[in-house]
Design a protein that fits this description.
- The complex is a heterodimer.
- By secondary structure, chain A is an alpha+beta fold.
- Chain A folds into 2 domains: about 200 residues, Cytochrome Bc1 Complex, Chain A, domain 1; about 180 residues, Metalloenzyme, LuxS/M16 peptidase-like (Cytochrome Bc1 Complex, Chain A, domain 1), CATH 3.30.830.10.
- Chain A contains 17 helices and 11 strands.
- In chain A, the strands form 2 sheets. Chain A has a 6-stranded mixed sheet, sandwiched between helices. Chain A has a 5-stranded mixed sheet with strand order 7-11-8-10-9, with helices on both faces.
- In chain A, helix 3 crosses helix 9, helix 11 packs across helix 17 and helix 12 runs antiparallel to helix 13.
- Chain B is of the alpha+beta class.
- Chain B has 2 domains: about 220 residues, Metalloenzyme, LuxS/M16 peptidase-like (Cytochrome Bc1 Complex, Chain A, domain 1), CATH 3.30.830; about 180 residues, Metalloenzyme, LuxS/M16 peptidase-like (Cytochrome Bc1 Complex, Chain A, domain 1), CATH 3.30.830.10.
- In chain B, strand 9 and strand 10 form a beta hairpin.
- The radius of gyration of chain B is 22 Å and the shape is globular.
- Chain B starts with 13 loop residues before the first helix and ends with a strand.
- The chains are: A alpha+beta, B alpha+beta.
- Chains A and B meet through helix 1, helix 4, strand 5, helix 6 and helix 7 of A and helix 1, helix 3, helix 4, strand 4 and helix 6 of B.
């Protein structure tokens, strides 16, 4: 067990580096936009005899409402349960015989299918991905079974104190904005979503112009590209769906206390933050890293190492399309909770009032960009990043642009970011 | 053997982190990967003059190098009145040395653009650093320093107690993690593998510097250390750096490790735990082959566990979850340690389905014992194993982990030959392994039962 697992893992929401190299013409990434609008990218990578596929599309809880919350994820859960050609059991056997894994899920800004296999089975993996995406069976009987499964996951999430605390926090912070909605949905929304709603949702979103397909691994780009054209090129372009305009969220500034039996108390404090393509994004990333990035972050040093007021101490700031959330997070013993929360608020005041030192700024940038690089090494992650940036609309040049922006962040930028984004704070305290 | 968890550095989502990391018993020798995937690349193993084992291999996937220290000391080396010392040491090694003040070690690693991790199990303690290749020398100096010069500043030692207590709380709050822990404690009651890795509150509360330092000086000796360095570097480049750091450490000979006999599970062991969750959890465990106990059976047991409960196509998933709808999730795992392996089946279900789920699991196992497995299942399991190793070697730290763990709890040669052996296992041998190890009565069972459930 690891004292460090926690801090590190909590900071992993990053993004990454070798993509920087991916902009160069000789980086091994081949890109094509097929006539029907689907974007296809192939990254040749000889490191290990494996292959990863990511098919992501613009669909997720951002397009949902409280009434159909969770429908993107629910749709994907049903999609993997069988195609017009194969039963769920046959699919499971087939994927296992490739040394593979396939999963499908809905997220906030994107949904889709991700898979891995031994490289020699890349063609089979791509075929299955296409089958799941383009000809799912969407069997009514599976809708009921998957609903039960999703309800069990909801319950498990509710039983898990940190996971529940984050759900409560986003709900509090985002109010009526769709980012307040949980990916999994709610008991009420899942009960309401029926087979017809899932079929409609699937048809509205599974359109080529919304999709990006990425293959990364020990493969030939020419062969993969030809196969991708064969499998996806025939999909008719749809009528473009116009994405709804979403009113910007208004931070509630509320403090919510939730009772939950557990050994630990969870404390989350935070505010609304910029979207991933906002000019302040890099400065807030650096701010987040100074406060809660790794074991040299201020929260970890001050609240865990020096005063032992918390076991877990980290910050989160995910890159998203709409306004993001900068979240400061503590897991602590209930008897320390009040003191820990005060100490955390003191850290917020301090970073708003006192400029950080150049050394601390430099360490934070090194840590941030180092983690970003580390996270971009496996084919699975590389495929995900390439498709994620495409679906977010920021493109393949984003990582290099982001890296330069992080390097350019100044002491004054950090203080300005703290004053701008850690002014009105919302918080959730969940514990026994 | 397959690894049953991918640990922190690979995990993104909070919930999975909580579930996946810090499962001390989840660590068996891992990944005979390199042999499978890149036949040309083999590790270089050498023993430095002072007994430190150095393992290196070039890995040019990225400009980062993985450095890992594997200590042949863990929970099983603790006397009954030393429980938790190995784990406490793991924490304190990052708390400073005479030349590195408290707090500076983490800052140093992170400032290099690197990351660190550490892990305590029953057979070993593991330290793991990944840094840009340009900083390999700085990282080696740091690791060699903390390996023998930890200062145990009294204030730091006291402050860390609260952190360890919090870690205990956190484990208890996570049902899956706690189920694994409890299952191990019940199955191995009376054996060091049944001890709490974190120790007990009473003992940690009373722990002082002298006690910890004595254990450190006894255990952290060159003969118990293996250093694994994998990255865009040749053995010839790494060797002088390792010599100048780890090669200069001194210390007494490694202490002899105790090897108490395995207790009998005849008649079974049962434990029901009332919990606050709304869902029930079921865990079953059997003793199985280990690296010093019928190691020739390890490949067959490994394949057996894949066939039983790895992924959606496995028998337990298809029967107990898909067909009978008795559980929300189910899996089988096989963990090998030096003195005993463990095959476990864990499931999450409605409280009312606990008995039926257990009966269905036992029925699936009985069928494997009486009818055997199919050739298609055998083939799938081999491909799954091969794939697991191929994915391990994508990163330098994945490869380093498989080598370090094998060196510490088995041998590097066994690791390199493993996948070849796995391919030779017949369906009959898999059936025989099920008959030999998965007895109806020689089993530990732990159930987490919601307090509100009847």
């Amino acid at each position: 067990m690891s004292r460090r697992a926690f801090a590190l893992a909590l900071a992993v929401m990053l993004a990454t580096p070798w993509l920087a190299a991916a902009q160069a013409p000789n980086d091994g990434v081949t890109v094509a936009r097929l006539d029907n609008g689907i974007t296809v990218m192939v990254r040749e990578n000889r490191v290990a005899p494996v292959v990863a596929v990511a098919l992501l599309l613009r669909m997720g809880s951002r397009w949902e409402t409280p009434a159909n919350s969770g429908i993107s994820n629910f749709t994907h859960a049903v999609m993997v349960k069988g195609t017009t050609k194969r039963s769920g059991g046959d699919l499971a056997d087939l994927v296992a015989s490739l040394g593979g894994k396939i999963s499908a899920a809905g997220d906030v800004d994107y949904s889709g299918i991700q898979g891995t296999a031994l490289a020699r089975f890349w063609r089979e993996l791509l075929d299955i991905t296409a089958e799941l995406a383009l000809s799912p069976q969407l069997n009514p009987a599976e809708v009921d079974r998957e609903r039960d499964w999703l309800l069990s996951r909801l319950q498990r999430r509710r039983d898990n104190a940190p996971a529940r605390a984050f759900d409560e926090f986003y709900r509090t912070l985002y109010g009526s904005h769709p980012y307040a909605l949980p990916n999994l949905g709610t008991r009420e929304s899942l009960a309401r979503i029926d087979h017809a709603a899932i079929v409609d949702w699937y048809r509205a979103f599974y359109r080529p112009e919304r999709m990006t397909l990425v293959v990364s691994g020990q493969v030939s780009a020419a062969e993969v590209m030809a196969e991708a054209r064969r499998l996806f090129g025939g999909l008719a372009a749809g009528t473009p769906v116009t994405d709804p305009r979403i009113a910007p969220p208004q931070a509630s500034g509320r403090r919510i206390v939730v009772a939950q039996p557990a050994q630990q108390t969870q404390i989350l404090v935070g505010g609304l933050a910029p979207s991933l393509d906002h000019p302040d994004h890099a400065a807030v990333k650096v701010l987040s890293t100074i406060l809660g990035g790794g074991m040299a972050g201020r929260l970890f040093v001050e609240l865990r190492d020096k005063s032992a007021l918390a076991y877990t101490a980290a910050s989160f700031y995910d890159p998203v399309h709409e306004p993001g959330a900068l979240v400061l997070y503590l897991g602590t013993a209930p008897e320390n909770a009040a003191k820990a929360e005060q100490a955390l608020l003191a850290e917020v005041r301090k970073i708003r009032e006192v400029p950080v030192s150049p050394e601390e700024l430099s360490r934070a940038k090194g840590y941030l960009l180092g983690r970003y690089a580390m996270d971009r090494r496996t084919n699975e992650r590389l495929a995900w990043y390439l498709s994620f940036y495409e679906v977010e609309g920021v493109g393949r040049a984003y990582p290099e642009r982001y890296r330069r922006q992080v390097e350019a962040v100044t002491v004054a930028d950090v203080q300005r970011a703290a004053r701008t984004y850690l002014g009105s704070l919302s918080s959730v305290v969940l514990g026994p | 053997m397959k690894r049953t968890v991918r640990c922190a550095w690979l995990v993104g989502a909070l919930a999975s982190v909580l579930a996946a990391c810090a499962t001390p018993n989840a660590a068996g020798p891992a990944a005979p990967g390199a042999a499978a995937a890149t036949a040309a690349a083999r590790p270089t193993r050498e023993v430095l003059g002072n007994g430190v084992v150095l393992i290196t291999q070039e890995h040019r996937a990225a400009d980062v190098v993985a450095l890992q220290v594997w200590m042949r000391v863990g929970g099983r080396d603790e006397a009954p009145d030393e429980l938790g010392l190995s784990h406490y040491l793991e924490h304190m090694l990052f708390k400073g040395t005479p030349t590195r003040p408290p707090g500076s070690i983490d800052r140093e690693i992170e400032g290099l653009g690197g990351s660190s991790n550490a892990f305590t199990s029953y057979d070993f303690t593991h330290y793991d650093v990944v840094v840009p290749a340009a900083h390999v020398k700085a990282a080696l100096e740091l690791l060699a320093d903390i390996a023998v010069n930890a200062a145990f500043v009294p204030e730091e030692l006291e402050a860390e107690k609260k952190v360890v207590f919090e870690e205990m709380n956190l484990t208890e709050d996570d049902p899956e993690k706690f189920l694994g822990r409890r299952l191990s404690e019940v199955a191995y009651r009376g054996h060091p593998y049944g001890r709490p890795i974190l120790g007990t509150r009473e003992f940690i509360q009373a722990l002082n510097r002298e006690r910890l330092n004595a254990y450190y000086k006894k255990q952290y000796v060159p003969q118990s250390m293996s250093l694994v360095v994998i990255g865009p570097l040749t053995a010839a480049q790494v060797r002088p750096l390792a010599q100048a750091t780890f090669g200069r450490l001194t210390g007494p000979p490694a202490p002899r490790r105790s090897t108490p006999p395995l207790p009998s599970m005849a008649g079974g062991r049962r434990d029901d735990v009332p919990r606050d969750e709304q869902q029930a959890y079921l865990g079953l465990a059997w003793y199985a082959a280990a690296t010093t106990l019928a190691p020739e059976d390890i490949p067959a047991v490994d394949l057996l566990s894949y066939i039983l409960g790895d992924g959606p196509s496995s028998r337990l998933n298809q029967t107990v979850r898909e067909q009978k709808n008795l559980v929300f999730a189910i899996e089988a795992a096989y963990v090998t340690r030096e003195q005993s392996g463990t095959v476990s089946v864990t499931a999450r279900c409605e409280p009312k389905n606990l008995d039926a789920a257990e009966a269905a699991i036992m029925d699936v196992i009985r069928r494997v014992k009486s009818e055997g497995v199919t050739e298609a299942e055998r083939q799938r399991a081999i491909v799954t194993a091969e794939s697991s190793y191929a994915f391990d070697i994508e990163t330098s730290e994945g490869l380093a982990k498989s080598y370090g763990q094998a060196e510490t709890t088995w041998t590097l040669d066994n690791e390199l030959a493993y996948l070849g052996r796995l391919r030779l296992v017949s369906a009959a041998q898999i059936q025989a392994a099920a008959r030999k190890y998965l007895g109806d009565d020689d089993m530990a069972r732990v159930r987490f039962i919601p307090k509100g459930a009847k």
